[in-house]
Design brief:
globular, single chain, 13% strand, 20 helices, alpha/beta
């Protein structure tokens, strides 16, 4: 059998954690694989994120739009008891959901292996994300003797921190946020404890203990479980951190790391379709000058408090800069109530938003042609790719950061949850493509600070020029990495060769 014929028989199972933020990059990874490496097919295992059998609308639209050679299996909801969810953090809920779904995942994988077990097919590998490792999917892969890879969907700096965490846990006695000195990871900018990811802010929590245990397993590759880590970054973006990861791998048993990014959403199925005028924000952008509009959005799960929403609105108005703002109703209890799912049906129209925004804000900004407020959702990748978009006020989710880099859009960093504070440090101090506002003693970024940071980015001053030029440089680097002979294309090709041969190493 020729190499090309062999390639046509390779199949990969990909198991993302619940939530669109986890599903989208895994889907894009699969698209990249089947489009650039002939003969691969992929099956996604969709883990339900609640006891409801109703799939979120945007998730359903994404799965319906999958190209040929990509298929999916929807697993039944695990039915988590309310007693287990009452005081659990988002990370623990995801871990519990996956753990309760393990029997279903095991049976579905076993059936897939049986289906592919003939002279013309083989299951070449299983790809999971960090939550999948925490939930126990790695043990299933080992039992079924299928090579296991982890897709690490955020920055190399975060992966390096994960490898460093066991040592940090031994050396530091206090809470990390109380450390006086920053942590100096090799090849990275200094990182203060207050900017560590949320799971590391309370060392007594169950969430921290779970992440620490997994960090020990990843950093030592205990049980030789992982055959490789697919990293959604690229060598030109984080050269120091990626070289440091390589140095760590060379002296230990840690799995090899393949920087294959930036992997971003290449397009979007219509949300509620476009015939009903839901893409009106794109037509609005058409009528404004090049690079003149600030895009404001906080991802698929981020929300602001009532006080912060009020100050942000008044600051945008005070700046006098054009803006396109994706707004959700405020939440005074959590900045990520929709992290595992999505906020659908929360803000059906602008009338509802008028109850949360400052009095007269919608009318004033609309009459002046200053801004457009869109409830709940817009196609982010289309907005960032529009010529009128000149800046992005973002929650610093890594997907959003990479989409900005791919389109050369400079940032205002406004982290909310998860690892976003660490990302903000990388984007501002490391990559120097973002500005970060300073909150007051109550953690609120007031209207004057919003106004100042927006003007600094969007107006034609020296600071804004430097940030915009840096964003353009990173855009060029990203496209070079993804070119035919680019660094990321080469890394993915290495993985594809292993999968074609039906071996993980």
């Amino acid at each position: 059998m020729s190499t090309q014929e062999q390639a046509a028989l390779s199949h990969v199972a990909m198991i993302p954690s619940p939530g669109m933020g986890h599903l989208i990059p895994i889907v894009e990874l699969a698209k990249l694989l089947v489009s650039h490496h002939h003969g691969f097919s992929v099956t996604f295992f969709i883990i339900a994120n609640s006891s409801s059998s109703q799939m979120p609308e945007t998730q359903e639209a994404l799965l319906r739009s999958l190209p040929a050679n990509l298929d999916y299996i929807c697993l039944p909801p695990p039915g988590l008891p309310s007693s287990e969810l009452a005081a659990a953090t988002t990370e623990v809920v995801i871990g519990l959901t996956i753990a309760r779904s393990l029997p279903l995942i095991h049976d579905a994988l076993d059936e897939l292996i049986t289906t592919k077990r003939d002279d013309r097919h083989h299951l070449a590998g299983i790809v999971i994300d960090p939550f999948g490792m925490m939930g126990g999917i790695g043990d299933i892969a080992k039992e079924l003797k299928v090579p296991l890879y982890m897709y690490f969907g955020t920055a190399a700096m975060n992966l390096l921190f994960t490898f460093h965490l066991p040592r940090l846990d031994q050396e530091v006695e206090c809470e990390y946020r109380d450390m006086t000195d920053p942590v100096d990871l090799p090849g990275c900018v200094p990182l203060h404890g207050k900017d560590f990811a949320d799971p590391f802010q309370d060392r007594t929590s169950e969430t921290y203990k779970r992440f620490l245990d997994q960090s020990r397993r990843w950093s030592s590759n205990r049980d030789n479980m992982l055959e490789g880590i697919l990293l959604n970054s690229f060598a030109e973006l984080e050269p120091g951190a990626i070289q440091a990861l390589q140095n760590i791998i060379d002296v230990g048993r840690r799995p090899p790391v393949y920087p294959i990014g930036p992997i971003i959403r290449s397009g979007s199925p219509d949300h509620n379709g476009s015939a009903d005028g839901s893409d009106h924000y794109l037509r609005w952008l058409d009528h404004h000058p090049r690079s003149s509009v600030l895009f404001v959005a906080f991802g698929s799960g981020g929300t602001l408090s009532s006080a912060q929403l009020h100050e942000l609105a008044l600051g945008l108005e005070l700046s006098g800069q054009r803006f396109l703002w994706i707004v959700r109703s405020p939440n005074d209890n959590s900045s990520c109530p929709s992290y595992c799912g999505e906020a659908q049906g929360v803000d059906p129209d602008l009338v509802g938003l008028g109850n949360f925004l400052p009095n007269g804000f919608l009318e004033r900004t609309r009459e002046r042609g200053l801004g457009l407020v869109v409830p709940s959702w817009a196609c982010q990748v289309k907005v960032l790719g529009h010529s009128s978009t000149g800046g992005f006020l973002t929650h610093c989710g890594w997907n959003s950061a990479l989409e900005s880099i791919m389109h050369g859009v400079p940032l205002i960093a406004w982290p909310l949850y998860a690892e976003q504070k660490t990302n903000a440090v990388l984007l501002t101090q490391g990559l120097k493509m973002a500005l970060r506002p300073k909150p007051d003693d109550n953690g609120i970024v007031d209207r004057e600070e919003v106004c100042k940071i927006v003007k600094d980015l969007m107006e034609d001053g020296e600071q804004g020029k430097r940030i915009r030029e840096r964003a353009r440089e990173l855009k060029e680097s990203a496209h070079r990495a993804l070119a035919e002979h680019g660094s990321s294309s080469h890394a993915l090709a290495q993985v594809a060769v292993k999968w074609r041969r039906g071996r993980g190493h």
